[in-house]
């Protein structure tokens, strides 16, 4: 079966996420900026980068920026938008479940609304290989919300192909699996949006090679 993420047009995804009633694009970009300000890494990889949400806010002091997405059209759009503007930009079409990731390890991995669509053990094994010892993984998980759809209704109907693939992951489950793959959780906090949806951000440190 074809992964639904390969069939969703980038314009649909970005328009959906930017709707005022959803407002998740801004939240995810803000989360990336917060992580960069906290850890000031020389190298960062954004997993599930789509068309480069938040790339325009990455400081020039970040020497190497890696974008990863399963959809080649998304990566092509990110290249068109930012290839000439971000020094040291690397873009890769890759499935984090399929095998080792095609880039050298980085100091910071940012994976927002990614783990809902993958096998945790497989994805975390490959992400651990892509994170330098002492580096950090920042995750953002959607939390369950009573009387709200996991994928918010919107005019962009292509996104309604996602619910069969999507599984809301409890933060404790992610933390337990991350621990098995050489990460230690350092922090966790919750963000509540006006839509009523809540999201858990977890900060993990890579503790072993």
UniProtKB/TrEMBL annotation:
Residues forming the Methyltransferase type domain are 47-138
Question: Which keywords are on file for this protein?
Answer: Methyltransferase, Transferase
Instruction: Output the Pfam families linked to this UniProt entry.
Output: Methyltransf_11
| SUPFAM superfamilies the UniProt entry points to | S-adenosyl-L-methionine-dependent methyltransferases
User: Could you cite one Gene Ontology molecular function of this protein?
Assistant: S-adenosylmethionine-dependent methyltransferase activity
The family database entries (InterPro entries) matched by this protein are listed as: Methyltransf_11 (IPR013216), SAM-dependent_MTases_sf (IPR029063)
Q: Name one GO biological process term.
A: methylation
Name of the protein: Class I SAM-dependent methyltransferase
Which species is this record about?
Answer: Candidatus Dactylopiibacterium carminicum
